[in-house]
Amino acid sequence: MRLSQRVEDWSSSSSSIMSRSALNAFARVKAASPNHARQLSLSAARMNAYQGFRSQLQEHHGCSNLNISSDWSQEPTAQTLVPFVVEQSARGERSYDIFSRLLKERIICLNGPVHDHSASLIVAQLLFLEAENPEKSISLYINSPGGSVTAGMAIYDTYIRSPVSTLCNGQACSMGSLLLAAGEPGKRYALPNASIMMHQPSGGASGQASDIAIHAREILRVRERLNRIYQRHCNLKDLEAIGEMTSIDGAWKLAVQKLNLTLTMLLERAVERDHFMDAEEALKFGLIDRILEKRPSPVRAGEGAS
Questions:
Q1: Active site residue 199
Q2: Positive or negative, the Cα torsion across 59, 61, 66, 67?
Q3: Which of 43, 69, 101, 182 is the residue whose CA sits 20 to 30 A from 35?
């Protein structure tokens, strides 16, 4: 029997693997929300298909240490943990996963590392929202340790006609800090306990000496490019204050005064090593425009500007 057929067999028999308590819970969900139940059924089928496929490979093909893409193996579990929102309207009932519902409000979430998969999702959402209304603002919530430079640049280059407001909740490190700084001027925010980190790109190379030299030149070019992007978006007004902030003993402040360091030189030295900042320091550095202490009060009907 072909492996693809085994996957289909395992998928079709997913209900037989579920425990009695799980089936009872599924029946209650199905009665309350048929659409939500359909999503759970698909997720359970995919998980059982994966588990069955893995055991069949181990049993019949001697694969005792099966290495499958983490995105595939973890997707069904993550899918079942995403909350669903059920809405009632004159046209009937409709359920959304929570991130799709936020997308309706033009809110995009970047949670976790920046890699090709997450970048493709962010890019697709940005393009969709721009096509829907190119003048209306988009909110990008960032909680990311950073990741791939090329994936981050794909998101950065897709900052389209719609103004993109950025907000850091948790952390915005490495490429995450660059995406945070690249938001619409005046609409770059961070929460009080957010952590922001900048540094230079890192990488490695192996092979012939000439190939290593090529990769070394490329990573230096990328570093220069990233520094120019930071310089373009950072609103640094007080170089002495920034110099003092980036040095434990205050030597930077003296260097700025005596050596007349330029903004470019200051940025290059600031990202020479991991440069961590809290929200207050990021505000001084010009990476953000405002620290949000609390949510603004909603404007009530009749209270608009006269």
A1: yes
A2: negative
A3: 69
